[in-house]
Structures are given as C-alpha cells and as structure tokens.
Amino acid sequence: MLKLIIQTTVILVLAALFYSCKSSNINNKYTKKNYEYMSLEGYYESVDENNIIFFLKAERTKINEGEYLPNSENIRLEIFDSEKRLIYNSAHNMNFLQVISEVLPMEEGKHHDYEISWNYLTNDGKKITPGNYTAKLTIPAVPNNYSIEIDFGYQR
After folding, report:
1. Where do the H-state alpha helices sit in the chain?
2. pLDDT confidence of 27, banded at 50, 70, 90?
3. I need a surface site. Which of 28, 38, 65, 138 has the fewest CB within 10 A?
4. Is the pTM of this model over 0.85?
5. Which domains occur in the chain, in start order?
C-alpha cells in the first residue's frame, strides 16, 4: 500500500511539473529600449494558466526637467493580438486620481522596477485563445511616454 501511495505521489508531482512547463511562456526573453532620458528593460513571468506578470525596469540616463505623471496611473499595460488589434488596456474604464507626481526614477543612474499583472481576459471579459500576443508597457509621462513592447505566447 505504501508503495502505491509513493508511486501515485511521484506521478502527481511529475504531472504537475509537466503541466507547469506546458503552460509556461513560449518566449520569455528580455526586451530593451533606450530613450534619451530613460532606458527600459521588460520581461514577463507566467504565473499559471490564469495570470501573467509583466515587469519593467526603468533606468534614468538623463534628467528631463518638467517631466511628470499627470495622474495616479504610473504604468499602463496594453495587449495586442497577432493581428495587432488592441484587446486589453489596463486603463479601460478606470478613474485615476488627478495628482501630479514624479516619473520614477528621478535621479540619473538610478532605476525603478514597475510590475503589472494580467488575467488573460480581454476588456470584454473573454478569455484569450492560445496564440502569440504583444504586451505594450507604458510609463504615461508628460511630455513624452516611455514604452516598450514584449512578445509572448499563451498556451492552455
């Protein structure tokens, strides 16, 4: 009986490992983009079949006098399907506080880590189908946004 329990446990653990690999990212490489005032590096981590987290590391390369965030939204996530149609926008139907704040990081040579999660649902509340997608991460700064695009795949 003990042998059967151990075999069943091993099979369940191996199945869980296989399933987590199957639902993991197709392409999880870093994406980099350099602006005059900021350098961006983005990547993602698939948590499970219901959640994915996008990460954005912003490094200040030069001070931009007069730059600010016009409201409480400090990071925006937009998802595009393989036909480049917008299917999700984190700002959709949102009301942000109307406060002016600094764009992080503020000091040259410093970095700030942003992160935003998504549940694989469109703005219409529908689960996406397996395929290739593009995530656009934006720091909605004034006078100019900072954006980076990351390609990723979704499998069930």
Report:
1. 2-22
2. very low
3. 65
4. no
5. 26-154 (2.60.40.2360)
Write out the two tokens for 67. 């730059």
Q: Could you give the percent of the chain with pLDDT greater than 70?
A: 81
Q: Which residue has the tokens 């004034």?
A: 142
Find out whether 91 and 138 touch, Cβ atoms under 8 Å. no
Q: Residue 45 belongs to what H/E stretch? A: strand 38-48
Q: Tokens for 140, please give them.
A: 């909605």
Which residues, including other chains, have CB under 8 Å from residue 39's CB and lie 6 or more apart? Answer: 32, 33, 58, 59, 61
Q: What letter would DSSP give residue 131?
A: E
How does residue 23 score in pLDDT terms, banded at 50, 70 and 90?
A: very low
